[in-house]
């Protein structure tokens, strides 16, 4: 059996390949949205109660940096700031229908790019991959509960 560190190196290499496939899909999008802005849109799309302080916390940045990202997204029509109906002192961040379409298109582009790669694998190997990924996901569940419970994975 391989040492855990060898397996970790293999996983790291595979993740780099996966990220390259995702980056290629992102760059094929027109206009290409920077990764940080995509992450903001993804975070906001997953919670209807996102305000600037929650966004800054999720991004692990200071509120002024989160605000600048939101300024850019608002200027391109991908984000709206509206008064929070529960507390008028708060501003709620909402993605626009254009942003939702952009995220949906990106998801489809990523899946198509992944499908191209998966087609080069035998059905048996794809099934092994699914089982291995499920096992990894289950093993990672405690780590997500400690720090990434809200699903703030990158776009």
Polypeptide structure, described:
This protein is mainly alpha-helical and 155 residues long. It has a single domain (4-146), classed as Arc Repressor Mutant, subunit A (Orthogonal Bundle), CATH 1.10.10. It is 67% helix and 10% strand. The chain has six helices and two strands, in the order ααααββαα. It has a two-stranded antiparallel ribbon. A hairpin with a 2-residue loop joins β1 and β2 (87-95). α3 (52-59) crosses α4 (63-75). It is globular, with a radius of gyration of 18 Å. The two termini are 34 Å apart. Residues 149-155 have low confidence and may be disordered.
Strand content: 5-15%
* Uncertain stretches: 149-155
Number of strands: 2
User: How much is the average pLDDT?
Assistant: 89
- List SSEs in N-to-C order: HHHHEEHH
Strand order within the widest sheet? 1-2
Bulk shape = globular
Please state the oligomeric state of the protein chains shown: single chain
Biggest beta-sheet profile = 2 strands, antiparallel
| Separation, N- and C-terminal Cα atoms | 34 Å
Helix/strand structural class: mainly alpha
The CATH class designation is Mainly Alpha
CATH topological fold name: Arc Repressor Mutant, subunit A
CATH architecture: Orthogonal Bundle
Task: Give the name of the CATH superfamily.
Answer: Winged helix-like DNA-binding domain superfamily/Winged helix DNA-binding domain
How many domain modules?
1
Write down the Rg: 18 Å
Q: If helices are DSSP runs of H or I spanning 4 or more residues, what is the number of helices?
A: 6
